[in-house]
Amino acid sequence: MPEREFELYLSVLSRMLRLNEQQKNAISDELRDHMEERFEELVRSGMNRDDAIRQALDEFGDAAGLAVDFTNVSKKRIRRIIMRSTAVIASLVAVCVFFLNDVDLRRPGLPGPGQIVAENSSTPGNNSPVEPAQDSNADVAKPIVTGDRPIDFVVAGEVVAPAFLQDATMGEFADTPLEDVADFWSTLHNVSILLDRAGLDGDGIATDTPTTISVDPFLPVKQGDKTKETDASGKQDPIQKNHISLAQALDWVTRMHEAEWYVDEGIIHITSRMAEEEREISRSYFIRQFLVDGFTENSLIETIQKMTSGHWMNIDGNGGTLALVGDVLTIRQNWQTHREIELLLAAILRHEKELPICYPESALRLASRIEQRIEDIDFSDTPLSDVVAYLSEAAEVRIRIDENALKEEGWDLDSPVSLKIQHQSLRTILRLALKPFDLQAIVHEGCLEITIASKANETLTTVAYDVRNLDDKAGQLRQLEVAIQSTNGGPWLDRDGVGGVLLMPGGGRMLVRQTDEGHREIRQLLAAQRRANSLGKTFESAGTELTRSTEVIRSARRGPLEKRFYRVPSETADDLLTVLPASIEPETWIQAAAFEQSTNTGRSVGTIAKVEVGQKVVKISNPSDDGGNATKSRNTGSTTKSASSNTELLVMPQAVLIIDQTPTIHEKIEKFLQKLDMDVKGVSLEDAQKHNSGGGLGGGGFF
Amino acid sequence: MDGLNPELMRGSLELMVLSVLSDGSKYGYLIQQRLKEASDELVDLKAGTLYPILHKLETKKMVRCRWDDSTGRRRKWYELTAAGKKQLKVRVDEWQAYVECLRRVLGPLADPSPLPA
Fold this sequence. Notes:
The structure holds 2 protein chains of 2 kinds.
Chain A: H1 3-16, H2 21-44, H3 49-58, H4 61-75, H5 86-106, H6 113-119, H7 132-141, E1 154-156, E2 168-169, E3 171-177, H8 178-189, E4 193-195, H9 197-202, E5 210-215, H10 226-230, H11 236-242, E6 244-245, H12 246-256, E7 259-264, E8 267-272, H13 273-278, E9 280-286, H14 288-292, H15 297-307, H16 313-316, E10 321-325, E11 328-334, H17 335-350, E12 354-356, H18 360-369, E13 373-374, E14 377-383, H19 384-395, E15 399-401, H20 403-408, E16 416-421, E17 424-425, H21 426-434, E18 439-444, E19 447-452, H22 453-458, E20 461-466, H23 476-487, H24 493-496, E21 501-506, E22 509-514, H25 516-539, H26 549-558, E23 562-569, H27 570-583, E24 607-619, H28 626-629, E25 632-633, E26 641-644, E27 647-661, H29 663-675, E28 683-684, H30 685-690
Parallel strand pairs in A: 4-8, 15-19
Antiparallel strand pairs in A: 1-9, 2-6, 3-5, 7-8, 9-11, 10-11, 12-20, 13-17, 14-16, 18-19, 20-22, 21-22, 23-27, 23-28, 24-25, 24-27, 26-27
Chain B: H1 6-10, H2 13-20, E1 26-27, H3 28-38, H4 47-59, E2 63-68, E3 75-80, H5 82-106
Antiparallel strand pairs in B: 1-3, 2-3
């Protein structure tokens, strides 16, 4: 009974066709006839049923795609954006076939498409042949609520972003009712997507609002590369690396309708912005690792509140609240803000040089792609949509057009563009091409997007920058902050009352919420700074480790420890035991190491200990006389005065400080002792042996 | 399309489909099978390639189609229109001229491989 599998396939295909019902049915009927005949023949030839279904469907991967292409043939001059390439659609549908085959193979003979999808959720995706789309299906097949929690700082509360949100999605809709779009993705991803009718109605959004969106799992490719893209081996990479996730697609669709979405117990809800904002949930975040990393409780809370888009009771007078108990920060906020918080915290922990918190990978990739150069641009009254499609293919990046915004300003996709230029970056080309319309191309929601200038200036994204290379002590962070705020066009919230925010919350991070252009300027400034710092390092190689105090500590700790003996008067030795570790690089000492036994070698930090070593006899009346200078009486513990002819002898109890430290610290100790008027040299074990019983030890300097 | 250079094939797929239809109406699957047989399995046109070609020929009015429900499922039959027959003739002539031209250009290089007359 292959009909069900074929029907499921054909229904998916039909949704992708931009044709009227009659045309769709005709294509379905024709293809069904072919599939069934092909299936029967394959079975007759001895192939098993499952393989025959797969084979019959496989051969149709391309048919479906090209049937979509045929949509364009029959509609003549359809000018849709982005998905123009037949090869792309062909591959897309081929993936769809794999997906459906997978469902079919695991659960043959289920009653109907809807149930196949629903019941499949309890079947883990194992032992199926590995195909790119099956991987994502395997994720979908896991029970949703217990889906992987990729981030370990959430200690209580619902999973905000279940793994299936990251699955690759696709779909091509032209004036399709919103509910059908939801229905399609629901089927494709095996999750429930519910439309909150009441909420949407309240905001004047009908569930059948026409929706036009193209979610193409493949990057646009250059004309010459199309064949490469369609063959079986070539299609894995693009979808793995450059896919559009379900979350991204939902972001696009809801933003288009000024609606919002959230996930509750594994079910995706599409609702009005108002309804989503009012639906607050509590989650607890474990913040110890951020505190260890250099944040304070306050700086972390400030970061969370200022770097996300949610409203807060203590700032805005309405919205979310926070409560800190020990290391657990409990936040009550709406779902979307929790999603942002989770992304923000994850981005902070990653310590990348630069990491946008939303769709970080796509955004970073775009940031570099946008700088690549394109040859031979020659547009002459070319419709904007064609210009965008051309650039999209030439640079192999997705470019979306915010049509709603364009309409507000009276532009449409046919607006003519003229530009003739050689060998310029995509950024420059777009800037020049869009300038006459006052449009801008920005990186937004993981995609390059063309929108009106006012929207571009309102669209703020948060990026976590790593500024550990800068010297906090030397005030470089503050300088950088000033530099950014003064050279950057802004606007800045704390200076201009509106606009972006910059925070240096500690831990070598700088967090900035700014426009796309603002981030570009910061990126340049930081690159210059890093270059300057690395140049500095080569000139003063010895001084590099001084750029950060902790670096000093680390290198001091890492350096080889060396035991040296300092002979000092017994009465000052006790003071020095506490004074030295407290005064010289305090971080490098093991505290309270006041006993002989603590001088073991092999420690990673310094130790100091005192040993009483008897007494020293000093001739007071004639100190320059070599004869008695080094005289020692080891067995007497008390001070005695003895007189002999012209000389008065002072017998002083002696002690030796045994200090285990790195050479750098030893030098500092000696300098320190000199300042105390104690001309004491640290003597290493070898030296001491050389000089036997300390001929050179602590000669004078006593009072 | 194993065995043959797809680049070479691309330009003549329409011609092949038209030629298969020259001896009577057929439906998609049959056209596919006929092409395979006639070419000793060298031309194994994927369904995904065939149907768009058929639809294109239909819009260009080279073929007309009718639906047949007698087999229990709806089947779409294609047959050549007068314009299609005329087009086929033109394309065959074109092709022959092209082959001749190519043979002359290649000269001795083409000799080792026996070309169909």
